[in-house]
Each structure stands twice: as structure tokens, then as C-alpha cells.
Amino acid sequence: MNAFTIAKKELNLYFRSPIAYGIMGFFALVTGFFFYSAVGFFLQRSMQMAQMGQSTPMNVDEWVVRNVLSNISVVGLFLIPMMTMRSFAEEKRTGTIELLITSPLRDSEIIIGKWLGALVMYATLLGLTAVNMVTLYAYGTPDWRPMVVGYLGLLLQGGALLAIGILISSTTRNQIVAGVAGFCVCLLLWVLDWVTAFEASTLNKVIAYISVVSHFESFAKGVVDLKDVVYYITMIVLGLFLTARSMDSMRWRA
Amino acid sequence: MIKVEGLTKRYARHVAVDHISFEVAKGQIVGFLGPNGAGKTTTMRMLTCFMPPTEGTAEVAGYDVIQNPMEVKRRIGYLPETPPLYPDMEVAEYLDFVSRIKNLPSAGRQARINQVMERCAVADVRNKEIGKLSKGYKQRVGLAQAIIHNPDVLILDEPTSGLDPHQIMETRDLIRELAGDHTIILSTHILPEVEQICERVVIIAKGKLVATDTVANLTTNLRGAETIALEVIGGDEASVRERLDRIAGILKVTTVPTDGRVRFTIDADKEKNVRPEIARAIIGSGWELHELHGVSMSLENIFLELTSNKEAA
Q1: From start to end of chain A, where are the E strands?
Q2: CA gap B138, A154 in Å, rounded
Q3: Distance from CA of B62 to the nearest CA of A (A)
Q4: Is residue B306 part of a domain?
Q5: How confident is the model at residue A174 (pLDDT cuts 50, 70, 90)?
Q6: Best to test chain A binding among B86, B102, B130 (most A CBs inside 10 Å)
Q7: What one-character-per-residue DSSP string does B112-156 give?
Q8: Residue after which a domain boundary falls, among B175, B197, B220
């Protein structure tokens, strides 16, 4: 399957350039800080609770893991455009797209390969944050199941945003344009659910439904909600399908 | 091997390629000649299935580029004008990637990569990053990429552009060596290149086909006139000119400006052998004949003539 060849090449290029290490360092630093502050907050609160004579201990999953995962999902919004901006834009600028298109590859293999490579890269980033989570086990026994569900949610959300980022990258040959446009779209998808804050009309509910982050809430709580899974998978399929259309149109106009 | 009929590429505002038809037999090297912007790259991109034609058909190795693009792509090696290289990859690694997407079976893949690296003289830089290579090396890695799956047809877009003279020679030699195994189409706007490497020429200008013939035929048949260079010492320009005008068969005499000497370029009727006549006339007038030789009609002149004629028509 040639999609894997493309995915391998994408991954290879991520780790050959300084981009991957920059993003990894940045991601580890920021999520590490979130983790540190969440744990600090948790310690202070549980100390207070103990002084006030609360008998049941505070839940680590609820107070630390959930917050950290929600924060990671937001940081992902900022990082994903950086990961996908090169995707097609760079291949178009340097002309390597001609190699891919004139090779016996289906468009779908190229697109899925690129998406898969980016997804594995994103999973590597998430793996870095999991190191923080593991340290929790040194001092307590948090439930591992909500964590797994949370990471599944992050992966699905990442997959959806990567598909959108790749779509945007396929429309331009300038990676800066792709990066900025991808960032704007991710930002919009994040804040769209604010519209229900002031008026809960049907239209606003529909707009809020499109928001990427609101679908992550249930995952952060450790709940796999089918409607959220369907949402993310729809976004992935739609994003990749539109990328295929975009490649087709590029071919006719090129 | 390649059959193109009425191939047309139309954009919103202009026609890039306008009803081009030609055929290339198996094993031939064909030069695709035309000024910049003539539609060479567009034609090649249609042949390689990079973009579909607006009209007309093109067949490569018996497969139609629209009906069977996968089969065509399997049989074509393509080197675009800028070699499609990933600067962050190492040479051997890049060729391995290309061999995979070209569906080379895993058995014998490594051997084939080594063989191609030897052939294109890039084996000594196999573990170097492509971005750090010189332009000549990059071009050869590009060629290695195009031949790795041993395609029936090689399509090379300006394979020598931007190289220094030494690299140009190397690249030409390599292309000539490859000719035995592959049918090759190469585009260029450098005319001597065509004369040196190609058996046939397809000349296009402004998207239209101007001529297609063998190089030999084009250079001999196109004009009924031959060109002669003449240098005389001892006579002033006007009197030599006046003497030359009396010789039958001379069509046109042009003075070539040189300091101190008198040089002419003479267009003469090919049927009448005027050179001995000119020699006698110069010597007979008491001047010294310093130089007298035929200038073979270069492809350059033919090209200029054909493309400008087309413009006039």
C-alpha cells in the first residue's frame, strides 16, 4: 500500500527538519507547565479540603487529568496548522508534486499518506504529554480508563484538524499563507460554540455543533459519546475528500 | 511508442498548446524545440498525465493518457524542469522512496538503486543530503529518479538548463547512453543540443507545431541557398562588392563589420557552385583571398526562419 510509503516519507521529513523538534519542545514545555499548575492547584485544594475535614479524597482524574487534557486540546489547535502548512504547499512550490502526480499513485494514496504521517507525528506529541500522566502513578492510583478515552479524543480531534490543515495547504503554494489560514480556521472552530452563550437559537446551535472543542468535552470526562466520534470522523472524511477535489482542480488549472 | 493527435490545452485566457500532432517511434531521441513559452512544458505535462488535455488524444506505449493514466505513468520516467527533489533527504534514501512509489518490487530493489546510482554517477554522494549537492549532481539525481523503474519512455524537460558547460556535456553524454534502452523526448531551447543528441526534431512556437523532421533533413532541405563566408585583403569594400555583384548565382552580399579587413557573408544559389568563381574574381582583381568557406546552415538559422515565418503568416 503506497499510502504507507507516503506516510513514512512525511514522517521522515518532519524529523529531518528542525520543525518537528521545535514543535516537540514547545509542546512538551507548554503541556508540562499545564500539568505542573494543575497538580499544584490540586495539591492546594486537597490540603484545604483535608483541613475542612472532608473525608473523601479529591479525584485526580477529575481535577488534574481532565484539565490537562482540555488544555492540550487547545494547544493542539495552535500547533496543527504549523504541522500541516508544508504538506502540499511545499510540494507545489518545489515541484515535487510533479513526481507524486506522475507516479503510479492514486490521489487518495497521496492524501491519506500525508494525513497518516501527520497523525503519527501528532500522536508522538501526545505521547510526550503522557509522560506527565505516568508520574501521577508514582504518588497515587488514578483510573487509567478516562485517560485512554481522553487521548483517543485528542487523536480524533487532531485527525479532524489535520485533515482541514491539509485541505488548506492544498489550495496554495505558499506555506506561510497555508499556516496563517489554517490557524484562523482552527481558531474559529474553537470559538464557534460561543454563539450559544448569548442566544440559543437553532441556527446558533448548528454553528456551535461545528465547533471542534465542544465535542472534546465528553472525551475529557472519560466518556465516549457516539455523536462526538461521528462528528470527528465526518470532519476527517470531509477534509480529505475536499483535498482530493482540490487536487483535481489544481490539475485542471495547473 | 508515442502518438499525439490534435493535442490542445486551453486556459481561460489563452491557448497554450494548439492542435499538436506527432509520433515518436520506439528507441528514438526526439528534441522538442521552441522558444520559452512555446508550450513545450505543457505538452510534456499532458504526456506524463500531470494535467489532462482540453482536446485531442495522446497515447504512450499504446495506452491513452485519459483512459489509462495509471498504465501510462507506470511506463514513463519524467524529469521536470526543476528536478523534483526533497532537499532534506539523502540521495539513496530518496531513490528508495521513488522506487517504492513507482511500484518497483522489493526483490532486487536495492540492486537496481545501486545500478542506477552508478549509471548516473551519483554513487559517491549516496549518503549526502540532496540539498547540499551541486546543481549538476542534483540534475543527475533527477535523471536517476526518472529511470529507476526502467520506463519505456523518458520525458526530460530542459535537462541541461542552468548547468555549467562541463555538467552540460556530462548530462548530454548520459542521455545519449540512455537512448538505447528508452524512447526519449527532451525539450530544449538550446539548438546545438538538438543537433548533438537528437535524431528527430519537433519544433513548436506559440503552441503550434511548426515542423517535425529528422535533424539531417531539416538542415539540408529547408533552403535552396548556401551561405559562404569571405575575407579579402587589399581591396576596399565598395569595389569588392561591385566585383562580386557581377558573378552569376550570388543572391545577396552582406558586409560583416571588422576593423581593417573586408569580410562578407554571401548567400548564393546552391545549384551553381559559385566558390571557384569567387576565388578567381578576387585573385584576378589583384586582391588577396584570405578566407573562403561555406557556412553550413545551422539549426539555429532554420529555427529562426521557421518560427519567424510562422509569425508573419
Answers
A1: none
A2: 41
A3: 17
A4: no
A5: very high
A6: B86
A7: HHHHHHHHTT-GGGTTSBGGGS-HHHHHHHHHHHHHTT--SEEEE
A8: B220
Tell if the CB–CB gap between B84 and A9 is shorter than 8 Å.
no
The answer to whether B84 contacts chain A (CB < 8 Å) is yes
Q: Could you list the residue range(s) of the whole structural domain that residue A147 is in?
A: 2-253
Q: Within the 94-133 window of chain A, which residues sit less than 8 Å (CB to CB) from chain B?
A: 94-105
Closest-CA distance of chain B to residue A40, Å: 42
Rounded Cα distance between B58 and A195, Å, is 55
CA A77 vs CA A32, A168, A187, B7, B263: distances in Å: 17, 14, 7, 47, 76
Residue B305 belongs to some domain of the structure: no
Q: How many folded domains does chain A comprise?
A: 1
What number is the ipTM of this complex? 0.89
> Who among B78, B88, B100 is closest to A102 (CB)?
B78
**Spatial distance between the Cα atoms of B106 and A151, rounded to a whole number of angstroms:** 36
Domain that holds residue B237: 224-296
Residue B70 at interface with chain A, using a CB cutoff of 8 Å? yes
pLDDT band at B300 (very low <50, low <70, confident <90, very high): low
Rounded CA separation B192/B186 (Å): 13
Q: How many structural domains does chain B have?
A: 2
CB within 8 Å: A104 and B78: no
A250 touches chain B (CB under 8 A): no
